[in-house]
TrEMBL record:
Identification of the protein by name: Carboxylic ester hydrolase
Domain annotation Carboxylesterase type B: ranges: 33-542
Signal peptide, first to last residue: 1-16
EC category: hydrolase
InterPro entries: AB_hydrolase_fold, CarbesteraseB, Carboxylesterase_B_AS, Carboxylesterase_B_CS, Lipase_GDXG_HIS_AS, Neuroligin/BSAL
Protein keywords: Hydrolase, Signal
The species this protein was found in: Aplysia californica (California sea hare)
PROSITE patterns, per the entry: CARBOXYLESTERASE_B_1 (PS00122), CARBOXYLESTERASE_B_2 (PS00941), LIPASE_GDXG_HIS (PS01173)
Pfam families according to UniProt: COesterase
Assigned EC number: 3.1.1.-
Length: 579
């Protein structure tokens, strides 16, 4: 107990007397009081890690987006009198179930509701002097459909000399439904992210974090969100560095593209009809009806739509709109004009991203992959397009990637490469080239995560699949990973995790992610341009390499042209789905 008291005294000293109510803390309970612009919060110190971490959980950063605030931009949270407990996670945002998801904070899942705009602060209790710590804000992935800040235990990362914040944002139909006009412009989930970052700017110093040294980082849809925030004029000045793990604004699933077979307006009209909101030509009346609709019925309607329309992960996404102005023009337009927030960036992908989404490759006994099966795998990448463009793009991808049909093993490798490059790698490389050219006053780094975990459930011929790097960013030795069958890690796993945690936190601290793990590790050089395309191949012994697969960029440019509507074709007819 004396140790905890000493740590609390150190933490109090580090944060400064102005931010803490020392007199309101019992002498032996391990609680901490912190003043925010909304009121006083009571958190608790977790003394189990190597550096005890103060945790403030379930902190509201906006009013509940319910009733008249549903399908509206977030509104600042009300202040409160007295002391508010911040000891348990707030509700997750409404979403479908994903029981196998391994990234879970705590022993039980928080409830789900529309009242979900909460964040969590993890602040280490030991630091040097009075200096404020760099801040890392995690934006979770989940295809804009699922996930939460509480699903990630970032405690170990916070022991590395950074303050870490995790956030929730509205998902699925609640985060992105749009009638395509000013009444319901969409992007509510993205506006939630902006609101959370403004809360960090205004309050994080009270927790010991530096509001002028903020790094946002995310994975998959969270990574695409980070990328979009680097483009959004609303996010200017809210962060100084950005880390993107497996997703960018140009990814085919990242935003609503003109070339999509189903537009956001079509999806909104179909979902509205499903909950008996039928005034489709009057957006104001439609909004009023939707704000009164049962939330679970809305969620169920969204799920049914996704199953029937079969358009992949592009039904509820961020979109171009000028009402809020989160994304005033297309990502390609903003990137080509150099209209980018000038921040340091680090982005990359895993070696076999799409392996997780291709169950036929994992069947036991193994399935013999034929050229026809390989075409089906590739065809899934173009499901969002109308039939004419599906045919054209499938032909392009097949002719590019299925060059050798001599064996099942070769075909599955080619099909997976086609899926990876179309869904992730091509867009990341194109965006990297734009940013390196237009934001040359900042540092930019590229990686390929290539470590196959010792506990991987993927087929043995695959390396790192989508999401694998997160085990290592958040400490592969976490007990909950082991409890869920993801471990115990071996020595190489632990080495890679130590590397990843040091690289990510070094980047947040200094803008240079080079790690000293293993001892004498390679210097991670910047990605300067397509003529000096340095990237780090991350493994137990990482290697600095030069990117050479220019055909990946060339092919994805053609896909992107179709996404952006420069290859127009008549849309497929949309037929009524709900009776």
């Amino acid at each position: 107990m004396a140790v905890i008291l000493l740590l609390l005294v150190l933490f109090t000293s580090a944060l400064g007397a102005s931010s803490l109510h020392r007199g309101q803390r019992a002498a032996d309970d391990g609680f901490l009081m912190v003043n925010t612009s909304y009121g006083t919060l009571r958190g608790k110190v977790d003394s189990t890690p190597s550096v005890p971490v103060a945790k403030f959980l379930g902190v509201p950063f906006a009013k509940p987006p319910t009733g008249p605030l549903r399908f509206k931009a977030p509104v600042k949270s009300d202040s409160w009198d007295g002391v508010r407990d911040a000891l348990t996670f707030g509700d997750e945002c409404l979403q479908g179930d994903n029981p196998n998801f391994p990234f879970r904070g705590g022993n039980t899942r928080p409830p789900r509701s529309e009242d979900c705009l909460f964040l969590n602060v993890y602040s280490p209790t030991q630091r040097n002097g009075q200096a404020l710590l760099p801040v890392m804000v995690w934006i979770h992935g989940g295809a804009y459909l699922m996930g939460s800040g509480s699903a990630y235990d970032v405690t170990t990362l916070a022991t590395k000399g950074v303050l870490v914040v995790t956030i929730n944002y509205r998902l699925n139909i609640f985060g992105f439904l749009s009638t395509g006009d000013d009444t319901m412009p969409g992007n509510y989930g993205m506006m939630d992210q902006i609101a959370a970052l403004k809360w960090v700017r205004d309050n994080i110093a009270s927790f010991g974090g530096d509001p002028n040294l903020v790094t946002i980082f995310g994975e998959s849809a969270g990574s695409a969100s980070v990328s979009l925030l680097t483009l959004s004029p609303l996010a200017k000045g809210l962060f100084q560095r950005a880390v993107m793990e497996s997703g960018v604004s140009l990814s085919p699933w990242a935003v609503e593209f003109p070339g999509n077979r189903v537009s956001s307006r079509m999806a909104a009209r179909l979902a509205s009809q499903a909950v008996q909101c039928d005034d489709l030509n009057n957006s104001t009346a439609l909004l009023s009806c939707l704000q009164q609709a049962d939330a679970v019925k809305l969620l169920n309607a969204s799920t049914t739509l996704a199953n029937v329309l079969q358009v992949g992960l592009v039904l509820w996404n961020p979109r171009v709109e000028t009402t809020f102005g989160f994304l005033p023009e297309s990502p390609s337009t903003l990137l080509s004009r150099g209209q980018i927030n000038h921040v340091d960036t680090l982005r990359g992908f895993n070696s076999d991203e799409f392996g997780i989404f291709t169950p036929i490759f994992s069947r036991k006994p193994p399935v013999q992959i034929t050229a026809e099966v390989a075409k089906q795998v590739i065809g899934a990448q173009v499901a969002q397009f109308n039939q004419l463009n599906q045919g054209k793009l499938l032909g392009l991808l097949v002719s590019t990637y299925l060059a050798d049909t001599s064996s099942s093993e070769v075909l599955q490798r080619e099909a997976l490469d086609a899926a990876d490059n179309t869904t992730f790698v091509g867009s990341i490389m194109i965006e990297m080239n734009y940013v390196a050219r237009s934001v040359s006053d900042k540092k930019h780094y590229l990686y390929q995560f290539n470590h196959r975990a010792s506990f991987s459930h993927a087929p043995t011929w695959m390396s790192a699949i989508h999401g694998d790097e997160m085990f290592f960013v958040f400490d592969v030795q976490q007990k909950k990973f082991t409890d869920l069958g993801n471990g115990p890690p071996d020595a190489n796993d632990i080495l890679v995790s130590q590397q990843m945690m040091e690289m990510w936190t070094n980047f947040a601290k200094t803008g240079n992610p080079t790690s000293t793990v293993p001892t004498g590790g390679v210097t991670w050089s910047q990605y300067i341009s397509p003529t000096a395309p340095h990237y780090l191949l991350i493994n137990s012994v990482s290697e600095l390499k030069l990117w050479s697969q220019n055909n990946v960029v060339d092919v994805y440019r053609k896909v992107l042209e179709t996404l952006e509507g420069s290859s127009p074709a008549p849309a497929d007819p949309i037929v009524p789905i709900f009776g």
